[in-house]
From TrEMBL:
It comes from Maribacter aquimaris. This is RagB/SusD family nutrient uptake outer membrane protein. Keywords: Cell outer membrane, Membrane, Signal. Residues 324-475 form the RagB/SusD domain. Belongs to the SusD family. Its main location: membrane. SUPFAM superfamilies: TPR-like (SSF48452). It is found in: Cell outer membrane. Pfam families: SusD_RagB.
């Protein structure tokens, strides 16, 4: 399996080069360079610094990505649990003392700082005589990772830190628009130095950053700015490269067969190395898992049930006649099915709407939620023999070619000119895989509906689209009332207490 090469590199580097793979940098150490006994003439050492940046990026906590996404109308927080602040956030009631807010902020800004430290280390390798072009490439990869994390943090909190140096005196708080422009400019700097291949075709770091990952991040930043021509230009270059294609099986895309496929421009990689015991680099997918199931592999464990596709999303998909995308995205319980059928418009449901997946796992009723996320589901029969933890060996998809196509289509429908075909072409590629009829004369509303259908429960894409477009009515659903003053989470109280820069900025802007 190709992903094991990448993970083995991480384990090797953690053992040989990094002092921080097992523990986060402490407050004093996080802005320090590495020890002076490193051989900066070593190309192997430079490679280790790069892989250290990837390790930092992949070490994402279970609470971070759900917090990005939970406010969208595609997903709800599972109730009746011990994370009331998470459920409150889903209902647009924010407590800046809730631990998840601080965890997201602190961990990802520590990651940004660590990646910046790796960049500074790489400059020392250049000074030590390592090939300058290679160092340019490695730095460009690290900057792309840093740009992506900064983009996601700014989507959540709005105005946040811009970090380009480990010198604390140079850290500033910037507006969201300024940060998005900075990210776009950073990608302009990195793209010429990055490899011109699909990430899945890299042999040194399979799935690693290439120029097309950076172009996708640039498109995402410009989408936030509503600079639709820049979005069309970046996504058009990806499309015209001919290096990407939609994976032919939407259901398997999010499972083991879809790992490092040519649809994925970025994914967080995990592996159990195909072995029943020993090293296992895994994400805690139990957060998304149903609390109660009868797995086809009896030993396979269930999870926590904290991430629930919304009734609004499910009914939207049923109304469209969706099949494979709905089956893939939602794990149904009998209780959830019965609740849908209380609405007379949905009393007669398709046969695939069942509590038994096509892989034989039975999703039993549980009190915390009516449904679970199918995009975070790994069939128990795809677990490595001897592994029993939910989702073990599954990668976490970050950026897909489908999102690139839909960004391109949206940009064109909002007035941009394109060089990679029409909006109809881009949307219909995606619809064709989903078994949906083709459209002609695609509008912006058509594209947003397609994004809802295709990208639900992925990285908060739906929520941040609605924020960008000011669609408060879409986010006011199932008894919730959304207003634009709720667009961003408040700064974590703990960070205001320890950061004079952030506290001063907060006081000046509130």
């Amino acid at each position: 399996m190709k992903s094991t090469i990448y993970i083995q590199c991480l384990l090797l580097v953690c053992g040989l080069y990094l002092t921080s793979c097992d523990n986060k940098l402490d407050e004093d150490a996080e802005l320090r360079s590495y020890q002076n006994d490193i051989d900066y003439a070593s190309e192997e050492g430079a490679y280790g610094a790069l892989v250290g940046a990837y390790e930092t990026f992949q070490d994402v906590g279970w609470e971070q990505i759900p917090l990005l996404a939970v406010r969208g109308d595609d997903v709800n927080a599972g109730g009746l649990g011990d994370q009331q602040g998470f459920a409150d956030t889903d209902n647009y009631t924010y407590d800046n003392n809730f631990w998840m807010y601080n965890s997201l902020w602190e961990n990802w800004f520590q990651d940004i700082t660590q990646i910046t430290s790796q960049i500074e280390q790489l400059e020392l390798y250049r000074d030590g005589g390592v090939n300058s072009s290679l160092i340019d490439q490695y730095i460009a990869e690290a900057k792309t990772l840093r740009g992506f994390i900064t983009l996601e943090l700014s989507r959540v909190f709005g105005d946040v830190y811009r970090i380009e140096s480990t010198d604390q005196s140079e850290i500033t708080v910037e507006t969201k628009d300024d940060l998005m422009q900075w990210i776009s400019d950073q990608m302009d700097e990195t793209i010429p130095d990055l490899l011109d291949v699909a990430p899945s075709n890299r042999t040194d770091i399979p799935g690693g950053i290439t120029k097309y990952t950076a172009l996708a991040v640039q498109a995402m930043a410009n989408l936030e700015l509503k600079n639709y021509q820049a979005v069309a230009d970046a996504t058009g270059e990806i499309i015209n490269s001919g290096k990407f294609e939609l994976y032919d099986d939407f259901y398997q895309l999010f499972k083991i067969p879809g790992k490092l496929c040519n649809e994925n421009l970025l994914e967080i990689q995990y592996s159990d190395f195909g072995q029943s015991s020993g090293d296992n680099v895994a994400h805690l997918f139990e957060f998304y898992a149903p609390q109660n199931w009868t797995a086809a592999v009896p030993e396979a464990t269930s999870g926590w049930g904290f991430y629930e596709p919304s009734f609004k999303y499910i009914k939207f998909m049923l109304d469209r006649g969706e099949t494979v995308r709905l089956e893939t995205s939602v794990l149904f319980t009998d209780r959830g099915i019965a609740e849908i059928q209380t609405d007379s418009d949905y009393s007669d449901l398709p046969d695939f709407v069942t509590n038994t997946t096509r892989d034989g796992d039975i999703i039993n009723d549980y009190s915390r939620a009516y449904f679970a996320s199918g995009k975070h589901y790994l069939p128990s029969i795809q677990l490595t023999e001897g592994r029993t933890t939910y989702g073990t060996n599954k990668n976490y998809t970050v950026i897909r070619y489908a999102e690139v196509l839909l960004m391109y289509a949206e940009a064109l429908t909002r007035g941009a000119s394109g060089t990679a075909g029409s909006a109809d072409d881009a949307v219909n590629l995606i619809r064709s895989r989903a078994g949906m009829p083709t459209l002609s004369g695609v509008t912006s509303d058509d594209v947003m509906d397609e994004k809802f259908a295709e990208l639900a429960m992925e990285w908060g894409i739906r929520y941040y689209d609605m924020i960008r477009l000011g669609e408060t009515s879409e986010l006011s659903y199932d008894g919730r009332t959304f207003t634009m003053d709720k667009a961003y989470l408040p700064y974590p109280l703990e960070q205001l207490d320890i950061s004079p820069i952030l506290d001063e900025y907060n006081n000046q802007n509130n």
